[in-house]
Amino acid sequence: MENNDRGQWGSKLGFILAVIGSAVGLGNIWRYPYLLYTNGGGAFLVPYFIALFTAGIPLVILEYGFGHKFRGSAPLSFARGNKKFEWLGWWPSVTSFIILSYYTAILSWAINYLFFSFGQTWGSDTNAFFFGEFLQASSGPFDISGMRWPIFIGITVIWAINWFVSYNGVSGGIERLNKVLIPTLLGIMIIIVIRGVTLPGASLGLNKLFTPDWSKVKDLNVWIDAYGQVFFSLSLAMGILVTYSSYLPKKSDINNSAFITAFSNSGFEFLSAIGVFGILGFMATSQGIPIEDVATQGIGLAFVAFPKVFSLMGPVGTVFGVLFFLALVFAGLTSSISLLEAFSSAVIDKSGASRKKVITITSIVGYLVCVIYATGAGVFVLDIVDAFINSFSLVTVGLLEAIILGWIIGADKIRKHTNSVSIYSIGKWWEVMIKFVTPAILGVMLITKIINEI
Ligand code: PHE
Fold this sequence. Notes:
Blueprint: H1 12-23, H2 26-38, H3 45-70, H4 74-81, H5 86-119, H6 126-134, H7 149-167, H8 170-197, H9 202-210, H10 220-233, H11 240-246, H12 254-287, H13 291-294, H14 298-312, H15 315-351, H16 355-371, H17 378-421, H18 429-453
Helix pairs in contact: 1-8, 1-11, 1-12, 1-15, 2-10, 2-12, 2-14, 3-4, 3-10, 3-11, 3-12, 3-17, 3-18, 4-5, 5-7, 5-15, 5-16, 5-17, 6-14, 7-8, 7-15, 7-16, 8-12, 8-15, 9-12, 11-15, 14-15, 15-16, 17-18
């Protein structure tokens, strides 16, 4: 049954930008730089590129080929490939929705900080401001009292944008948004990097970032981090790439697109690593403290360390702050749109209901769930959900996906399909990756994670 309400990309470029939009997110900006730094600096590039070629790119081709061949969201594609495995499509789709519910909460913080950065209202103690005044983090996960109104307003704005864009369809909404935001984001990043590396002390940060520590290459955990990053960063195992490629016209170059999107994502990661460590080097130098004490990631980097640096910079700091939070919002928005799409598309395919209706209902429910994060329980719930999904769900889905698609639905069939539409063919090596190498690596990752947890 072909649902007429399934959209289609207006151009191959639109598709590629939308996938880059999904891939380039908070992970590129606030996770990768620190990962590179703590896992051996320049030496980390070895596990990173091996992970990219043995799991990242093969899985991107697999998900593209799968969605394109069966022309459906993850559950529909699985159902068409082998009815028994429809559930394996629902798992990542539902996970997408759960991630979406807190990813949008973080985005609402970023949008608030975008406004704060005009007047640098975070003051001199940025840590106390963030946790105390802004989040008003309470003492436990069960305190859902007390609405944090600025966060609530941020959440409302983000969800209104998500709804509006998706409501307008694949090419009329998602493609259009990405065509504007992704080039703008690239421009902003380039400005941040150029100014960042010319700050006094930047070279200190960059030296620390890239100086290779080869002993790390022998550490299993470093390899696990490399695979984990490639996985999360390329938005794999979420049903996103399957869904996005199902909107491509029948004749579209799959293999080529896979390489372009993977390399663009890595390019964004390098850019942000250089920008972030240039700025951290400046902070360490101007404060006279070692870089080890300022290097950090995630929430601590974006909402505590960076606001502090922006304050130290004088008037330039205002511009820097605005650009940085704008980058965070743009990168995050395009990722959140892809999460919403993976879930909604699954529901549209299953129910046959109209896109407009499904997007509207999903947005209302998602918005209501997200509001929990604007209460006292916010950060606690967020940490728990995030840790569970990242350490468990993604790897498990990736593993099952490689096994079921590789062995049961057939890697050979998918390879034949992608080669039939692509200019450059991929060789037999790809089947070996999908059937043996990728599952073996993901299996080791999963076992290690389980052992580490208990
Ligand atoms: N790839 C995004 C990032 O690097 C995160 C993301 C993961 C987005 C999964 C959507 C789905 O931040």
